[in-house]
Amino acid sequence: MASVELKDVRKAYGALEVIHGVSLSIADGEFIALVGPSGCGKSTLLRMIAGLEDISHGEVVIGGNVVNALTPRERNIAMVFQSYALYPHMTVAENMGFNLKLSGVAKADIEKRVAEAARMLALGDLLDRKPSQLSGGQRQRVAMGRAIVRDPAVFLFDEPLSNLDAKLRVAMRTEIKTLHQKVGTTSVYVTHDQIEAMTLADRIVVLNGGNIEQVGTPLDLYRTPANLFVAGFIGSPAMNFLDADVDAENGQPAARLADGTIVRLDLARQVKRGQAVKLGIRPEHFVAGDTGDTVVGGQTLVVEPTGAQTHVVFTLAGEPVTAVVDGAFPARHGMPFQAAVAAQQVHVFDRGTGLSL
Amino acid sequence: MTDTTSGIKMTAGTRLYLYASLSLVACLVLVPLMTTALGGFKSLGDLRVNPFGLPHQWVWSNYTDILFGERYWRQMGNSLLIAVISVFLTVVVSAMAAFTFAHVKFFGSAQLMNYFLIGLMFPVATAILPLFIRIRDLGLLDSYWGVILPQVAFGLGMSILLFRNYFRNLPDELFQAAFVDGCGYIRFFWYVSLPLSRPIVATVSIVTFVNSWNSYILPLIMLNTETKYPWPLGIMVYRGEFGTEWQLVLAFITLTILPTVIVFFLAQKHIIAGLTAGAVKS
Questions:
Q1: A336-349 pLDDT, tens digit each
Q2: What is the count of residue pairs from A and B with beta carbons less than 8 Å apart?
Q3: What radius of gyration, in Å, describes the C-alpha atoms of chain B?
Q4: Deepest of A26, A227, A250, B252, by most Cβ within 10 A of its Cβ?
C-alpha cells in the first residue's frame, strides 16, 4: 500500500494539451473516484498514474518515489480495464497467476495466492474455465482477482462496470466496496457515472476539460458545489438552473426570475443587488405544497413515476424544471403544480464566472 | 440446412438455383481432379480415345509401380523437407516482423512495410536470372537452401500482411493488461499474441506449404542432382524423346497432390477462420 501524489501533471499530444496541470494527493488506503464527462481527461490521468501514458510535465509520486520513468510493473500498480482484458487462451487460474509467473514466483506459491484471491471473490469453482465460458460479472471478478493476487501498491480501475447491465452493476459496486474494505489498498477509480463515484469513493475528483473542478467527499460536493459544472454534474436528477437577478425583499436577499417570481435566498450568500446570477435548485429540495420560504408553481409538463418517487417536470419562468415528489403524490399532465423550496437550499452562482456565491 | 441455421427463408426456386449453381462450381473443381485420378488407371491408348470416362480396363500397375518404386518416396521426402523448412522459416520470420509492424511505432515503419508488400507484385519467375546469380554467388546451387531461402523471401510479403492484420485486431487493452502484468514486447509476443494466433499461423503455414509443394521453376533452376529433386521435377522422367507416358504422369500427380488435399480438408476450418479474421468482431 502507498500514497499517491500528482504534482502539476500535464499531458500534451504535440501542441494540444489535454491535462492542464493537475495536482492531487491521495492518502494511503484512500478510495478516490475521478469523474467527469467524456473527454475530460480522467482516463488519460489514470493511465498516466499507471504508466501506460508518458507524462509530459510534472511528477507522479507513488509511496514517496517519483515513478515517471518506471514501467507499470515497477510502479507496482494493478489495473482493472473496462473490457476486462482477460487473456482468452488462459484459464481463470492462469489469468490470475500470470503476473506472478512472469515475476518468477514459485508454482506452489502462485497456486496458494490464486486460491486465496479466488476464495475472496467466490471464484473457486471457476478456476479451470476459460474467460469465454464466464458471464460478464464473473469476468469482472476475475479481472479484479488478477489485480489483488499480486498485492499491489495501488489499484486502478478504468470504468470497470460500464460493460455490465444495470442490476449487475449495482451488485458489483457493492463487491468493489467490500473488497476495498477488506484489503484496504489505495484505489483510484475512473467513472463517468456520478452515482458510482458517490457510493464508492472516500473523496471525489471532478474533472472537466483537463482541469480539476473540485475535490471533496461525496456529500461535500453534493451540498456545497464550488461551481456550476460540479453542481450540474453531481446529483440525479440533475440540478435545475434558472437565470435571475439579485434583488431584496423585506430587507432579505432575494432573486427575481425572468417572469418576476421572487425566490428568497440565504443570508449567508455573498450577493449584491442587481447582480446577474444563476439559481440552482435540486429537484429533491422542492416540497410539494404551498408552505415554505418560496412557493413556486407552473403547469405540469411531464410526470415520470419511478415507484418510491415521482419526477414532475413543470414550467417555471418559462423553463422546464424538475421536482422530485413522493410516489403517492397525485401529479397529472397539464395540471398546475405548486412546490416550496427553503432559502438555504437555493444555490447561487455568478452568471459570468459560474462560481458559487 | 441453410434456412434452419441462418433463419433465412428460401423459395423453392431460389433453392433450386442455389443447388444448381453450387453443383456447377463443384463440377468445375472436381472434374479435373477426377480425370487425373481416373486417367492414372488407364492405358495410354485408352487415355487417348477416352479421356473423361471410366477406364475400360483398370490398370493398377500404373499406381503400384510408382508406389513401390524408390524414386517416388525420395522425391516426396525432398518435397516434404523443403516445404517443412520453408513453412517454419516463413512463420517465424513473418510473425516476428508483422508483430513489430503492428505494435512498435518507429521511424520509417510504413515505408519498410510497403517495401515488403512490393514483394507481392513479383512472382519468382520474373526474378529468376538475378536470383540464380545470387544463389550461385552464395554457393547454394544444387542444395536445398538454394530453393528454401528464395521461397521464404518471396512468401514474406503475403505472410506479413496476413499476420499484421491479425495482430492489429487483437484488442489494445490486452497489450496494456500484459504490460501492467509485467510483459515486454517479447513476452507479450510469446505468451499472448502467438497463442491467440493459431488460426493465422495455420493459414500462413498451409499457403506456404502448398506453394512450396507445387513449386516447379525454383527447383528446376537451382537443383541439378536428381536425388535432390522434389516431385514436380520427377514428372520429367516420364517424358521420353518421342512421347510422354501420360497415364504415368497422371498417376504420379494424383499420388503427390493427395497429401496436400488431405491436409487441406483437415485444416480448412482454420484456413477460412484465418483469412476472414477481423472481418467480424467476435
A1: 999 999 988 999 99
A2: 53
A3: 23
A4: B252
Q: What pTM did the predictor assign?
A: 0.77
Q: Is B243 on the interface with A (CB under 8 A)?
A: no
Chain B residues lying within 8 Å of A148, measured CB to CB: none
- In this structure, the number of other CB atoms found within 10 A of the CB of residue A342 comes to 15
Q: What is the pLDDT of residue A289?
A: 85
Percent of chain B with pLDDT over 70: 93
H/E element holding A92? helix A92-102
Topology (CATH) of A4-233: Rossmann fold (3.40.50)
User: What's the confidence (pLDDT) of residue A331?
Assistant: 85
- C-alpha span between B75 and B73 (Å, rounded): 5
Contact state of B174 with A82 under an 8 Å Cβ cutoff = no
For the domain bounded by A240-350, which CATH number is listed? 2.40.50.140
Grid coordinates in use for A305? 413515476
Does the pLDDT value for residue B23 go beyond 90?
yes
Q: Which residues pair with B202 in a beta bridge?
A: none
Strands A294-305 and A309-316: antiparallel
**What ipTM score was computed for the predicted complex, to two decimals?**
0.78
- What single string gives the DSSP state of each residue in B57-86? S--THHHHHHHHSHHHHHHHHHHHHHHHHH
Q: How far is B182 from chain A (nearest CA, A)?
A: 5
Which three cell numbers, joined as nine digits, stand for B81?
523437407
* Side-chain half-sphere CA neighbours of B111 within 13 A: 3
Q: What is the pLDDT of residue B274?
A: 65
Backbone angles phi, psi at B87, to 5 degrees: -60, -50
Tell me how far apart the alpha carbons of residues A255 and A259 are, in angstroms, rounded to a whole number. 11
Please say if the pLDDT value at position A36 is more than 80: yes
Query: What residue spans define the domains of chain A?
Result: 4-233, 240-350
Q: pLDDT-based confidence at B2, cuts 50/70/90?
A: very low
Q: State the Cα–Cα distance between residues A306 and A174, nearest whole angstrom.
A: 22
Residue B9: predicted pLDDT:
76
Pure H helices in chain B = 2-6, 12-39, 44-49, 61-68, 70-103, 109-118, 128-137, 144-168, 172-181, 185-188, 194-196, 198-214, 217-222, 231-234, 246-275
Q: Assess contact for A277 and A292: CB atoms under 8 A.
A: no
Close Cβ partners of B133 (under 8 Å, ≥ 6 residues apart): none
Q: Do B87 and B202 form a contact (C-beta atoms < 8 A)? A: no
Structural domains for chain B: 23-59 (no CATH), 68-275 (1.10.3720.10)
How high is the pLDDT of residue B276?
Answer: 63
Best to test chain B binding among A81, A82, A142, A157 (most B CBs inside 10 Å) = A81
Mean pLDDT score of chain B = 85
Looking at residue B241, its pLDDT comes to 67
pLDDT of residue B7: 64
CB contact under 8 A, B171 and A82: no
In the sheet that holds A336-341, the strands lie side by side as A287-288, A336-341, A294-305, A309-316, A319-326
Q: Phi then psi for A293, rounded to 5 degrees?
A: -60, -50
